[in-house]
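Same chain as my last thread, 316 residues:
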Amino acid sequence: MQEERTRAWGERLDFAMSIILRYAARVEREAERAKPTVAMLGAGSLASFLAPALADAGYKIREIIARSRGQSLNRARRLARSVGTRAVTLRDAELDASVLWFAVPDREIRVAAAQMAERLRSSKVGFAFHSSGALGSRELDALRAAGVAVASVHPLMTFVRGARPSLAGVPFALEGDAAAVKMARRIVRDLGGESFLLPARRKAAYHAWATMTSPLLVAYLVTLEEAARCAGLRREDARRMSLPILQQTLENSARLGPGSSFSGPFVRGDAETVAKHLALLRENPTVRDVYVALARAALARLPVRNRKELQRLLEH
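reply #2:
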């Protein structure tokens, strides 16, 4: 009889434990599905795009934190209204979010992190990100020392006023503490982006590449407009007329590779035409310098005929 009671008690205990374990697993799954809340520090170009993107992806923005009063606070208020939250100063921030996201200029990240560090010891913030492309997560060391998991989370995208790019397929470079990187991966996935790990020692080179990909590409496009003026075209017309060939060149390069997309006088080895270009462009040294620099890159990396003659032209 005692043995039967013991067996029955064991069966009831096993049943109770199975219920507890199933409940705990369900709670854990629900916790994983629940999106973390975010506090955004800064209200510039990046924050003005990122905060609405996070809100659209189902993330609750707790507050937009301005670095100071005046113009900074006014921008924060406008951004806060667009995502249905409050705008506060550093001093008044409640820091009642799971993630603190620094969207401030590179030179201000370390100082802002130090200002936040003491206050975060008594807050619910568990993660802190910054979005500098050039700097690593060590800029947030003051927060790391306060027990916060930190990471750098940089989207390879340009954010300017008047444009709202999609984040679908946009690569995000991640670097930092394992827990923070895991959280960042989850957020990037919800935003539609793709994440990859980038060692801190590679960030400066990565950012140089990113700078050439967009800001210096714009500088090149401005130079194109100046070159078109030499041909008697207005800047506005040059911008419009260049667009089809620019788009096709990018498409060719992405699909066929650079070598198979290369055309024009250099691939033909037409030194006479190149000589005419160089002579004409002496009237505009800036455009000529860009032409020569790109021509030298072509000679070094792309299929070019009559290389020696073209090289001689570029040296004069």
